[in-house]
Amino acid sequence: DIVMTQSPDSLAVSLGERATIKCKSSQTVLHSSNNRNYLAWYQQKPGQPPKLLFYWASTREFGVPDRFTGSGSGTDFTLTISSLQAEDVAVYYCQQYYHPPQTFGQGTKVEIK
Amino acid sequence: QVQLMQSGADVKKPGASVKVSCKTSDYMFTAYAINWMRQAPGQGLEWMGWINAYNGNTNYAQQFQGRLIMTIDISTTTAYMELRRLRSDDTAVYYCARSSYDLVTDSFRWSDNWGQGTLVTVSS
């Protein structure tokens, strides 16, 4: 199975400041046939199901604010919130769908400092 | 818009079975798979498997082999997840989610629309 490891486990950022979350896969999730990274990011707020933010590592889902950016390739990926807003307080998960079983990172909790 | 509506919370005794439903609407049911995930209290997300709504083919995570059954009813565009021989560590919120097919990997992709979740509590 592909192991997904996120860092940090939690972070506290001041309103308006940048938040950066890392995700590392135990093997590449870049498929050579189509040059796509099989990596998604989700946001989960308390008591709610996860919400898709990005797929193909950097393609923003419709309606996701552009202060969110997904980047990276191969085994190393980053989710950046350029200017943290109060409504961004949540747990963020990366997920690989390169090969079943689909696996998630352990999650990163983002709070306001 | 696309909706996935799950059945309500349930309480089961160890050794029993639970069946969770996921009623979908407003998209072509057979053009997608349904992924099932779960989340134990205070924990992260765990993928359980998927069922291809086009042909009923399934792919289960290894740890659930032998006690997990996923089915669909095309006539009602509903997916079902049945977990047998429940244990206390099966206590979790169970989610269904829609996923599209990927031709390159012959597999399924990200989950773009999720159900609201179903809390299953296993307790004696």
Description:
The complex is a heterodimer of chains A (about 110) and B (about 120). Chain A is mostly beta strands and about 110 residues long. Helix content of chain A is about 0%, strand content about 50%. In chain A, strands 2, 6, 7, 8, 11, 12 and 13 form a seven-stranded mixed β-sheet that branches. A four-stranded antiparallel β-sheet of chain A has the order 1-3-10-9, with no helix packed on it. A two-stranded antiparallel ribbon of chain A has the order 4-5. In chain A, β7 and β8 form a beta hairpin. In chain A, about 40% of the residues are buried. Chain B is an all-beta fold and about 120 residues long. Chain B contains no helices and eleven strands. In chain B, strands 2, 4, 5, 6, 9, 10 and 11 form a seven-stranded mixed β-sheet that branches. The radius of gyration of chain B is 14 Å and the shape is globular. Chain B starts with a strand and ends with a strand. The mean pLDDT of chain B is about 95. At the A-B interface, β6, β7 and β12 of A face β5, β9 and β10 of B.
Give a quick rundown of the structure.
The complex is a heterodimer of chains A (113) and B (124). By secondary structure, chain A is mostly beta strands.
Instruction: Summarize the biggest pleated sheet of chain B.
Output: 7 strands, mixed
Secondary-structure element pattern of chain A, one letter each: EEEEEEEEEEEEE
Strand content of chain A: over 45%
Question: Total number of β-strand segments of chain B?
Answer: 11
What fraction strand of chain B? over 45%
Q: Total number of helical segments of chain A?
A: 0
Helix content of chain B: under 10%
Q: Estimate the mean pLDDT confidence of chain A.
A: 98
Q: What is the average of the pLDDT values of chain B?
A: 97
Question: What percent of residues of chain A adopt helix (DSSP H or I)?
Answer: under 10%
**Which overall shape of chain A is indicated by the principal axes computed on the Cα atoms?**
globular
Oligomer classification: heterodimer
